[in-house]
Amino acid sequence: xxxxxTAAARxxxxxxxxxxxxxxxxxxxxxxxxxxxxxxxxxxFSSANSRTTPTTGKTIVSSIPLDSLPARGxxxxxxxxxxxxxxxxxxxxxxxxxxxxxxxxDYIDTGKVRFVFHDFPLSQHRNAIPAAEAARSAxxxxxxxxxxxxxxxxxxxxxxxxxxxxxxxxxAQELKxxxxxxxxxxxxxxxxxxxxxxxxxxxxxxxxxxxxxxxDGKPYDMPDLRAAIDAALAAKK
Amino acid sequence: xxxxxxxxxxxxxxLALIGLFDAAYLALERITGGTIVCPVGGGCExxxxxAYATLFGVPVAYIGVAGYAAILLSALLALNLDRxxxxxxxxxxxxxxxxxxxxxxYFSYLQLAVIGAICFWxxxxxxxxxxxWIAAYLNWRAAHPR
Lengths: 237, 146
Hints:
The complex is a heterodimer. Chain A is α+β, with helices and mostly antiparallel strands. Chain A has a single domain (68-236), classed as Glutaredoxin (3-Layer(aba) Sandwich). Chain A is built from 9 helices and 5 strands. In chain A, strands 1-3-2-4-5 form a 5-stranded mixed β-sheet. In chain A, helix 2 (90-108) links the parallel strand 2 and strand 3 (113-119). The longest helix of chain A has 24 residues, at 26-49. In chain B, strands 1-2 form a two-stranded antiparallel ribbon. In chain B, strands 3-4 form a two-stranded antiparallel ribbon. Chain B has one domain (12-143): VKOR domain (de novo design (two linked rop proteins)). The chains are: A alpha+beta, B mainly alpha. Chain A binds chain B through residues 1-2, 13, 15-24, 26, 29, 32-33, 36-37, 40, 43-44, 47-48, 51, 53, 122-124, 199-200, 202-206, 208-210, and chain B through 1, 3, 6-7, 9-10, 13-14, 17-18, 20-21, 24-25, 28-30, 32-38, 42-46, 48-49, 53, 79-83, 86, 117.
């Protein structure tokens, strides 16, 4: 029951009667809420706008030993580049079409760079994991890079399929692989655990977008890759 | 009946607002297809891409946005009213806070025991859920002194 002797300043209580809190000025509290809301909205907007956050200053090293991953180029090349990529990611497709051929010709074929492929399938790409499995299944028959190239060249053909398996088997046929062994590897998800492990390792290492390239743990984006390779080669002379 | 301290309700509003942005961030990245910045633990992508990130076909992030919004709204109402549609707001807050706490426990269990990875943003939400429940309980106790 309310105190009668302090009731003078208080209106009679009843259902729905506002019970105004006293003490801390409420306008201050509401102002704080508005401030936090404004700050939060600004943060969300900025995170939505900076799609590829600049990766300068971080070190990215995967817990997976690089020599267990698919790689191309001389084992004694002075510089090793690791690509963290998703087979369904459009930017990775752009790298494949526009930059990778030049890198292969100028650095890999000349023995200057060893290029390692580190799977990082992203959750928003429904067929990224099956595609990675297909590439690793082709690796069983020493055809990783051929399958890698086909997958990127034909992204539009398989990325939206409800089940891309048959399409991947067609690619295996095109590459003249043993399709029975390839299909078996896909159906039994022989390589799924490795792909998921690579994804977790990428996430753990701090990779936050694809493609991300690292040289000695330093991350670079596509536009900076060639310059970074040149600098690393010069430093090793 | 003594006027219950308004601090627990203010705390709930603040905590729910932070929780709202936490869930909104995850929901935003899911909608735009972006990668989640994962400050601690490195398990964000793993958790968010697991089957457990969806409940009955709805992404948990969306449920979180709705849930925290409801708690925020209730707390703000509770700072100005005793009841809504005849129901004491202290009970509404305790009920919502309890659901939030159970959700936090459930999703933390999933991450630790089933998925085997921890998503930083989910961990933050679980802590917020605990704090919200404690504040809601304190508020309810103060409104129903024995």
